[in-house]
Write a structure and sequence with these properties.
By secondary structure, this protein is of the alpha/beta class. The chain is built from 12 helices and 9 strands. α1 packs parallel to α3 and α5 packs parallel to α7. The site of ligand C2E has 23 residues, from β2, α3 and β6.
């Protein structure tokens, strides 16, 4: 049994080494991918659940890998965060999203009232000069600050309330909007929510997927909608996949949503085709 244990240990440590090696490889390939322009943004429409009008687009990054094809973000964002590459990547993402939005506005295919939502990683949020970076990107791309919404998660926001207040204050001063992503999955204190200059709560899709059947999720979704309303925040539901969910949300007062029922995240050409069909939804 002892020997087995040793073997087991040796096996485990060999596996660890292999994993560490893989990580180093992946890290350097993330760097190269950024240099070679292999990242790409997809856009998921956010719609008014009553009128069907376009309200926003969420930018979601993918890696167009020369051999592996299209790699989803959960396969590389965590590592990009650990290694810090997410900061450079995040700047690229913001710039790309703003540039794309501006070009759609110029072409007249998207109204200036439609928001572009960009996800911010906690590492980016910790960057000393975040608001300067955002300001610079807006100036370079010519996008109006009010057209940009940054998404941060509840856990990012709740780590240090002092610092969060400061950073959000600086962003809001620019005129940029701030949404709390995956709302309901963390532990926001109501006092803090009230104090922070937020503009929107995004109901996490885990609370949307089983409504109206699951009574716990129904209660949570309703509570978030009521909370948003009492704090004068906008509210948007993620992961809307069925007509029943859409009807429930509309009835309960959540009038914006995104999800496969309307559209998956789309690459630029497909999004442009989607825009043409919008009035038929
Ligand atoms: P997220 O910000 O919560 O994004 C929503 C995710 O839900 C997206 O996955 C989207 O494709 C998926 N989704 C949308 N509608 C539905 C639906 O109706 N049903 C279901 N089951 N899923 C739906 P995606 O694109 O794979 O992104 C996963 C996560 O990766 C994102 O979660 C976000 O945390 C991260 N991520 C994506 N793009 C970026 C980025 O540009 N920067 C950063 N920092 N993180 C990103
Ligand atoms: Ca998001
Ligand atoms: Ca989310
Ligand atoms: Ca999520």
């Amino acid at each position: 049994a002892k020997d087995e244990g040793r073997n087991g240990f040796r096996y485990y440590s060999e596996e660890l080494t292999a994993r560490a090696f893989e990580r180093v490889l992946l890290e350097s390939s993330l760097h190269r991918a950024l240099e070679r322009d292999e990242f790409e943004l997809f856009y998921q429409p956010q719609l008014d659940l009553v009128s069907g009008e376009l309200r926003g687009l969420e930018a979601l990054v993918r890696w167009r890998h020369p051999e592996m094809g299209l790699v989803p973000p959960d396969k590389f964002i965590p590592l990009a965060e650990e290694s810090g590459i997410i900061v450079a990547m995040g700047e690229w993402i913001l710039e790309r999203a703003c540039t794309q939005m501006r070009s759609w506005q110029h072409a007249g295919v998207i109204d200036e009232a439609v928001l572009i939502s960009v996800n911010l990683s906690p590492k980016q949020f910790d960057q000393h000069a975040l608001s300067e970076m955002v300001d610079g990107t807006l100036s370079r791309t010519g996008l109006a600050p009010a057209g940009l919404e940054l998404e941060i998660t509840e856990s990012t926001m709740m780590r240090s309330i002092e610092r969060t207040g400061h950073v959000l204050g600086a962003l809001r001063e620019l005129g940029v909007k701030v949404a709390i992503d995956d709302f309901g999955t963390g532990y926001s204190s109501l006092a803090h929510l009230k104090r922070l200059p937020l503009t929107k709560l995004k109901i996490d899709k885990s609370f949307v997927s089983d409504i109206p059947g699951d009574l716990n999720d129904v209660a949570i979704a309703k509570a978030i909608i009521a909370l948003a309303s009492s704090l004068s925040l906008e509210v948007l539901a993620e992961g809307v996949e069925t007509r029943e969910q859409q009807d429930f949300l509309t009835r309960e007062g959540c009038h914006t949503g995104q999800g496969y029922l309307f559209s998956r995240p789309l690459e630029v050409a497909a999004l442009e085709r989607f825009l043409l069909t919008l009035h038929r939804l």
